[in-house]
Amino acid sequence: xxxxxxxxxxSLYIHFPWCVRKCPYCDFNSHEVKNAIPEAAYIESLVxxxxxxxxxxxxxxxxxxxIGGGTPSLISPESLNSLLSSIRARLPINPDIEITLEAxxxxxxxSKFDELRSLGINRISxxxxxxxxxxxxxxxxxxxASESVSAIETAYKANFDNVNIDLMxxxxxxxxxxxxxxxxxxxxxxxxxxxYYQLTVEPNTYFHKNPPSLPEDExxxxxxxxxxxxLQENRYQQYEVSAxxxxxxxxxxxxxxxxxxxxxxxxxGAHAKITNASEQSIHRYWKxxxxxxxxxxxxxxxxxxxxxxxxxxxxxxxxxxxxxxLTNGFETQVFSVHTGLPIFIVExxxxxxxxxxxxxxxxxxxxxxxxxxxxLNDLLELFLPGD
Length: 387
Description:
Layout: E1 10-16, E2 18-19, E3 31-32, H1 39-53, E4 62-69, H2 77-90, E5 93-103, H3 107-110, H4 113-118, E6 123-129, H5 133-138, H6 145-157, E7 163-169, H7 176-189, E8 193-198, H8 206-209, H9 217-233, E9 237-240, E10 243-245, H10 252-258, E11 262-266, E12 271-276, E13 281-287, H11 291-298, E14 304-309, H12 312-323, E15 330-331, H13 332-339, H14 347-355, E16 359-361, E17 365-368, H15 370-374, H16 376-381
Helix pairs in contact: 1-2, 1-11, 7-9
């Protein structure tokens, strides 16, 4: 049984499932645009989807909005304006809300940046991945390095003062010099946030069926250490396994995920996690994935693709699975508030992790050590739910 005396923060995630080309490493719910995107029908479905979900979150404020994909910057500013206006009319929103939109560096998307900023979108996340044209071609990206530089500069000219760029390492054909040049180029462009993560080959992707030739693990690790040091030297604080930010510029939306906050998800394939204080329960929901199927099913309120009620063990593990990714870990009281559980239910595992040197733990905070961050999978395995 859970015991919620208060509810965790609530975010909203909006999924746009279309992209120009499916990247060979991508395992997200994204679909190549074959003809025109059915913008009007999809926006109408998103609003109806939100209305159908409102009973799950009556009276709760939204602290952040993240518009992801796919490539949501393919959608017209007019459609996004209609969507955001509908959201504001139906939900109480914090005055200082963070609204993020993912964008590709292509010139078509860049031309919209001024309009996107005028809609109240105040954080833009640009999928650069690399500043090496050879690496970009092998990743199946449709932009080049010059367009990436232009996109970041254009974002600042459009008065975005919170700009994230996505960078990957361990890429096909990536040399140590190329990896270091990526980081130095990113630093010179002065974004407020850098998401820096290793390419992984996921199931159900083109790369899984046709594995690329990747650098050796030791070479990848050495490059990673060098690049992380450069980020640190240039005032980018690593606050999560793959997230680096200038002071006070951490991604609030993702922090809510990592701290086991609640989030509503609308759109094809979107996921949600909702705490219900009156029922003392936590549920996960997900929407049907195919865009046209989603549009059809929203119309008859059958867009839920699945639902799961979390057990106490599920909640404890899922909290730790996310919160131990954070460099500073978590306050023990946050565990209790966000899971509705006392910290002592994982006391045995915490003690074992501390003995192994994977965490520091005192009365108020649990924090992964340098060893715990390096061997994160080993740390998390200690908290796997038993049979």
